[in-house]
Amino acid sequence: MRKKIGAVLALLLLAAALGGCQRQRAAAKEISDALGVDVSDGEQLAYTDSHGGFHGDGLTFAALKFPDAALVDKIKGKEGWKALPLSKNLTAAVYGISDETSSTGPYLTDEDGEPVLPEIENGYYYFQDRHAKSADAYDDTELLDRASLNFTIALYDVDTDTLYYVKYDT
Q1: Which residues have C-beta within 8 Å of that of residue 55, sequence separation ≥ 6?
Q2: 105 near 94, Cβ under 8 Å?
Q3: Phi-psi bin for 48: left (phi > 0), alpha (psi -120 to 50), beta?
Q4: Each residue of 52-67: b (16+ CB within 10 Å) or e?
């Protein structure tokens, strides 16, 4: 009887481990496809996805740690990737901007209203406007002028070799 229980527990643990690896591979493929660079050698530090429901609105967030700076070579020269700092519109969307008379953003926040992306000094960013009315997918000038936001953004921190990825749909 003990052998049967042990065998069943071992099978359950193996199935759970394989399921976790499969989810990580699926997330890495989704991110690689979205950003146009292979991120499969990154270690997944975090992954959440609140997409679902009737319209598919939500926020996907992932953080991947890389063993070295090899991702920088993949990023350089790829369409949609630029060196930091972020533009004014992207800064407003990611971290929020306020002055004496108004404030805009942040839009990419957790359940406590805090930005999900850390502030990064040295690195690169990727932006793609996926809105149906976007004339140029890599131009953010009209991003905040619409009633809905549908975009992908990624930040790569060269100091920590960490990639942060967000897919946002409203």
Answers
A1: 169
A2: yes
A3: beta
A4: eeeeeeebbbbbbebe
| Residue 145 burial (CB count, 10 A) | 8
pTM over 0.85: no
CB-side neighbour CA atoms (13 Å) of 40: 7
| Segments making up each domain of the chain, as ranges | 2-169
| Phi, psi at 40, each rounded to 5° | -65, -20
- What is the tens place of the pLDDT at every residue in 87-132? 999 999 999 998 889 898 899 998 888 999 999 999 999 999 988 7
Instruction: Give 6-50 pLDDT, tens digit per residue.
Output: 444 443 443 444 444 555 567 899 999 999 999 999 999 999 998
Do 97 and 106 form a contact (C-beta atoms < 8 A)?
Answer: no
Here the tokens at position 30 are 């989704």
Q: Which residues make Cβ contacts (< 8 Å) with residue 42, sequence separation at least 6?
A: 28, 64, 65, 66, 71, 163
Hey, what are 117's tokens?
């992306």
Q: 10 Å Cβ neighbour count for 158?
A: 17
Q: What are phi and psi of 110, to 5 degrees?
A: -90, -170
At which residue do the structure tokens 């957790």 appear?
A: 110
CA distances from 92 to 3, 8, 125, 140, 144 (A): 59, 52, 15, 11, 9
